[in-house]
Q: What sequence folds into this?
């Protein structure tokens, strides 16, 4: 568990590219939302979900909050997470990376400051939805939203986010952690290749 951290699962996407609710898709006999909830609970005892769930039971007892502002993409979810956080830091989790490890967040946490977000840099590039934000950043997000500047990448650059190169510096780094599922074909490929991979411990 990480001290002074609220874990926020961002579940507000419409899954248009996937073609059906991505939250309920299954991988390794477990739904995406369950992978994400298990990860959130390993990060912090204070875990929340940002988005809308048709079935409240899917939240497995976690508080669910709708976006306070709509129309600004992932930034709306992060803003809402910071608003409802009980601690001074918020760990942001996506729902479409079922192989994410808690060790990523432990490593990011070592680099946290009260002034800047800390964001993962994987072998694929910057991963804005795998990040830890100080709640104090809420003022900066509000300014961006007022100016209709919704680009998460631009915001991270503007406010000097600490980009942590996990591939080069994190012990035990695994490319599989950052498998991002946007299409059913990607999930099918991941499932078909799974049997050829050496099992690894996610948590």
A:
């Amino acid at each position: 568990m990480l001290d002074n951290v609220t874990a926020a699962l961002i579940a507000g996407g419409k899954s248009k590219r996937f073609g059906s609710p991505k939250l309920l898709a299954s991988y390794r006999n477990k739904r995406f939302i369950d992978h994400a909830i298990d990860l959130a609970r390993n990060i912090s005892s204070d875990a929340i979900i940002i988005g809308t769930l048709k079935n409240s039971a899917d939240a497995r007892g976690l508080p669910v909050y709708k976006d306070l502002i709509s129309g600004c993409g992932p930034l709306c979810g992060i803003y809402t997470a910071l608003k409802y956080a009980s601690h001074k830091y918020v760990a942001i989790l996506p729902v479409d990376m079922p192989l994410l490890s808690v060790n990523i967040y432990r490593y990011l946490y070592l680099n946290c400051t009260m002034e800047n977000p800390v964001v993962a840099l994987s072998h694929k590039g910057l991963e804005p939805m795998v990040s830890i934000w100080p709640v104090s950043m809420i003022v900066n997000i509000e300014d961006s939203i007022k100016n209709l500047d919704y680009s998460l990448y631009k915001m991270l650059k503007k406010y000097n986010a600490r980009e942590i190169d996990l591939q080069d510096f994190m012990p035990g780094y695994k490319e599989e952690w950052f498998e991002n599922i946007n299409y059913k074909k990607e999930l099918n490929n991941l499932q078909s290749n799974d049997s050829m991979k050496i099992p690894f411990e996610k948590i």
User: Anything to note?
Assistant: Residues 5-194 form a domain with the Spore Coat Polysaccharide Biosynthesis Protein SpsA; Chain A fold (CATH 3.90.550.10).
